[in-house]
Amino acid sequence: MKLQELASALLITHIHGNAETDITGIEADSRKIKPGYLFLCIPGLTADGHDYAPKAIALGASALVTERVLDLPIPQLVVKDARYAMAVLSAHFYGYPSKEMKIIGFTGTNGKTTSTYLLERILRDQGFVTGLMGTIEMKIGDTYYEMERTTQEAVDLQSSFRKMCDQKTDYCLMEVSSHALELGRVKGIHFRSGIFTNLSQDHLDYHGTMEAYAAAKGLLFSRLGNGFSLNPEERQYAILNADDAASLTLSRLTAAQIITYGIENHCDVRATDIQITSKGTSFKLVSFAGEAYFQMKLVGKFNVYNALGAIASALAENVPLEAIRNSLESIAVVDGRMEVVNEGQEFLVLVDYAHTPDGLENALSTIAEFAEGKVITVFGCGGDRDKTKRPIMGKVTAAYSDLLYVTSDNPRTEDPAAILEDIRPGLEEVNYPAEKVEFIVDRKKAIQKAIDGAGPKDVILIAGKGHETYQDIMGVKHDFDDRLVAKAAIRGRGR
Ligand SMILES: CC(=O)N[C@H]1[C@@H](OP(=O)(O)OP(=O)(O)OC[C@H]2O[C@@H](n3ccc(=O)[nH]c3=O)[C@H](O)[C@@H]2O)O[C@H](CO)[C@@H](O)[C@@H]1O[C@H](C)C(=O)N[C@@H](C)C(=O)N[C@H](CCC(=O)O)C(=O)O
Ligand SMILES: Nc1ncnc2c1ncn2[C@@H]1O[C@H](COP(=O)(O)OP(=O)(O)OP(=O)(O)O)[C@@H](O)[C@H]1O
Ligand SMILES: N[C@H](CCC[C@H](N)C(=O)O)C(=O)O
Ligand SMILES: [Mg+2]
Questions:
Q1: Which segments are annotated as binding site?
Q2: What span, in angstroms and rounded, lies between the C-alpha atoms of 283 and 292?
Q3: Alpha carbon distance 262, 291 (integer Å)
Q4: Nearest CA to ligand 3 atom 11
Q5: Is 414 in the pocket of ligand 3 (CB under 6 A)?
Q6: Considering only CA atoms, which residue is closest to atom 16 of ligand 1?
């Protein structure tokens, strides 16, 4: 594609240099530039892409997108807002792939990853080709890709969508993080539906206040539904959790058709008669499409919410209720979410990705429903993330745990011991007995200690890292998988 043609996607631009320059690829990270690529200079929060233009040129960039003319020897497309231009130019370069398939976006503090997998199973069982992108991985057809972040940068997103379209994907199920919404990574993407899971405290380091965090989530819904159509294929849906107060604001923001789901409040897709055990969850579904009894292997009331969002969305796609039930009942576990570690021991070990106060509350209140012995919790808080959630996570955990091992999560660039100290005030606030808690920086040792001390019928929750297979310490990712560490500890007991 010529630079001129790319520029035609924007009204106000100025080409400095040869407009006929060939563009073979498009990138916003100088380290990924290949010969012939256009390098987008993005002024960021920690760096300014304009400073990396010489590096990009050294790697063979054929042109730049800049916000001001740089004294450099290659053509430049000068734009008003490089970040916005990145979203527009990427969509144009890849031929607007989001219009060629149905993209369903999931947003909310907790439950996004889980919900994408539930809907993926339902749609796959119907014979649809699905793509999935989120915290654990990206899947295109049957190929898996590692993800750097939950929601990719605009250039990578559009490139991934193109690959999905090339594989004849019918539905793309994607997590849409609040960072992505705020930073415009998903601007211009045509969503079929938006699913809102819930809103509770997280990421205040980035958003500052809960209001700003909620407003970021709202961006997904405010862009939905403009352009009504009789054709069901062209409709857009906002699928909202009727039991979460934030849904009211979202319903005012959107022009899409709203489908509500929930347990407590009146709604379109509702679960009643919920039974929770350590082996699964059952409920009666009452919906605009009929009633059915569900017997899921997934554990916890929060997974009923995740199932309801997926059910509402599948009903909007015309999937029969019976088929939805069969698919959901066949799912054994979502990677690292309430995953049982079984080495034949007499106590239950669960690895879960709860890393917010609400996530922990949900995981632990679920365990409280069926625990017969002691509840033993191992958890920590990630470094370089919202510090204000640390004592709250301590307090929540204390409320449910008979024994507590406070340890490291991903310390990233912070001092691990200092992170543990940020959790302590939450325990002190509720006078959690000192003899019931240990602060152990080394996560492996903490897990081993918890497992060594467990008795028959106890339940151990190892929270925070779920599916992760590494521990990030000072930017170095060390091999670490809670499930493998727990297995080894169970086998090593008493030795
Ligand atoms: C707050 C945030 O999300 N920041 C992301 C954002 O930063 P930024 O736009 O300010 O960019 P920057 O790092 O200042 O760099 C400016 C520009 O220089 C470029 N650059 C930089 C260095 C270099 O050598 N060469 C180069 O070209 C960068 O590619 C970028 O285009 O864009 C960068 C490039 O894509 C990301 O690396 C960075 O992610 C940071 C590291 C991050 O940790 N993000 C997390 C919090 C995040 O996004 N998380 C959410 C999930 C949260 C959840 O679900 O719980 C996610 O969607 O993954
Ligand atoms: N609907 C829900 N409501 C509250 N808590 C939930 C819900 N679903 C899952 N959880 C808890 O939150 C944890 C994370 O779940 P999941 O990975 O599905 O969320 P996510 O929104 O994708 O998180 P992230 O923001 O890290 O991508 C789970 O391990 C579980 O403890
Ligand atoms: N997407 C979340 C994941 C947190 C997972 C937890 N293990 C941590 O490292 O804090 C984040 O980046 O905040
Ligand atoms: Mg996720």
A1: 30, 108-114, 150-151, 177, 185, 385, 409-412, 464, 468
A2: 9
A3: 14
A4: 385
A5: no
A6: 44
Pocket test for ligand 3, best of 107, 206, 335, 355 (most atoms within 8 A of CB): 355
Q: Which-ligand-closest: CA of 44?
A: 1
**If 0-12 CB within 10 Å is exposed, 13-18 middle and 19+ buried, where does residue 43 land?**
middle
Beta 257-262 vs 237-241: how paired, if at all? Answer: parallel
Q: Which atom of ligand 2 is nearest to the CA of 363?
A: 31
Length of the chain in terms of residues written: 495
- Ramachandran category for residue 457: left, alpha or beta (phi over 0 → left; psi -120 to 50 → alpha): left
Looking up residue 163, the CATH number of its domain turns out to be 3.40.1190.10
Quick one: how many helices (H) and strands (E) in the chain? Answer: 16, 24
Q: Which amino acid is at 386?
A: D
CA distance 59 to 36: 9
Task: Assess whether pLDDT exceeds 70 at residue 340.
Answer: yes
Question: What is the position in ligand 2's atom list of the atom closest to the CA of 110?
Answer: 21
* Same domain flag for 204 and 311: yes
Q: Tell me: do 142 and 274 sit in the same domain.
A: yes
Residue with CA closest to ligand 3 atom 3: 355
- The H or E element that residue 283 is part of is strand 280-287
Residues 188 and 302 in one domain: yes
For residues 413 and 465, membership in a common domain is answered with: yes
Specify the ligand 2 atom closest to the Cα of 202: 25
ipTM of the complex: 0.94
Residue 334 located in a structural domain: no
Name the nearest CA neighbour of 179 among 161, 198, 205: 205
- Cα–Cα distance, 290 to 114 (Å, whole number): 24
Pick from 3, 78, 95, 93: nearest CA to 41 = 78
For residue 200, the CA-to-ligand 2 centroid distance in Å is 11
Spatial CA neighbour of 443 closest among 486, 487, 396, 402: 486
What is the pLDDT, as a whole number, of residue 495? Answer: 67
The strand pairing partners of 291, in sequence order, are 286
Q: Can you give the pTM of this predicted structure?
A: 0.94
452 SS3 class:
helix
> b/e for 403-416, b at 16 or more Cβ within 10 A?
bbbbbbbbbbebeb
Sheet containing strand 339-340, strands side by side: 339-340, 348-352, 459-463, 375-379, 403-406, 437-439
153 domain-assigned: yes
C-alpha 474/C-alpha 461 separation (Å) is 26
197 lines ligand 2 (CB under 6 A): yes
Test site for ligand 1: of 26, 27, 29, 205, most ligand atoms within 8 A of the Cβ: 29
- Mean predicted confidence (pLDDT) in 122-144: 95
359 lines ligand 2 (CB under 6 A): yes
Q: Which ligand is nearest to the CA of 180?
A: 1
36 pLDDT exceeds 90? yes
pLDDT given at position 288: 96
Mean pLDDT of 162-180: 97
